[in-house]
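does this look right to u?? nicotinamide-adenine-dinucleotide version
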Amino acid sequence: MDLQLDGKLALVSGSTAGIGYAIAHTLAQEGADVIVNGRSQAAVDEAVDRIRSQAHGRVVGHAADLSRAEAAEEAVRRHPGIAILVNNLGIFEAKPFEDIPDDDWLRFFDVNVLSGVRLARLVLPGMRRANWGRIVFISSESAVQIPTEMIHYGVTKTAQLAVSRGLAESVAGTNITVNSVLPGPTKSRGVGDFVEGLARSNAKTFEQVEAEFFDHVRPTSLIKRFASPQEVASLVAYVASPLASATTGAALRVDGGVVKSAF
Ligand code: NAD
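got this back:
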């Protein structure tokens, strides 16, 4: 299937590793021009080189903390004509509710919600002028099944669904679509490191910790394993493409069936 992404300019926030990297890589392989973003110049350069060697779209790097207002403004100024925005960057941390101070709540809101809101606000005028655009929020199954071990994270992921749906309604009748994608547990760099750390400290293998996680922590998973970042990226690339023109205002799951719902 040709996703018809040739020449479309895409910004993927937080794309030097994990799900964001897989999305940037897939979009570039499909012919999109991609802006790779991460906070360190070295990580951005390395990701750009890796993607360039395997893709035919134009790939450029932009090192900046896109959860900061000035950095987001500068990124959109430096790269005019963004047609596809993937709000991927996000943080998570397991912490009991009683131990989450106001500062953490505000930081999670800032990084996980406001960063995407701000970038969407900055790119929307250009999309309206072009009467074409794709905005994708990378939310989580945790938006629907709030994890008791990180309620603040879950709340920010639910907020992304509300923003995404509201924004889709506000551009009704245009060729701009806005959707959220809900990955389930995915073996990204962040999660992979976390599980490997757990395995090491408990003298277990990665596979043992993975099996226990799906037995006890996410028992509703139907695939009984972590998804790969590529499995998430394939859905995102389709949603970001012209082919997905009738998919908007939706919350699309790539969660391995973790959310116990038929629709
Ligand atoms: P990750 O930690 O593996 O990678 C995140 C990337 O974002 C890294 O390149 C990191 O350097 C970058 N980044 C983080 N903060 C940034 C900032 N302020 N500015 C620029 N870059 C920044 O993460 P991941 O697991 O791939 O998660 C990506 C998204 O997917 C997040 O929004 C997360 O909530 C969501 N998600 C992940 C999972 C999972 O199991 N991995 C499940 C559901 C949803």
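The chain is about 45% helix and 15% strand. idk if thats expected tbh
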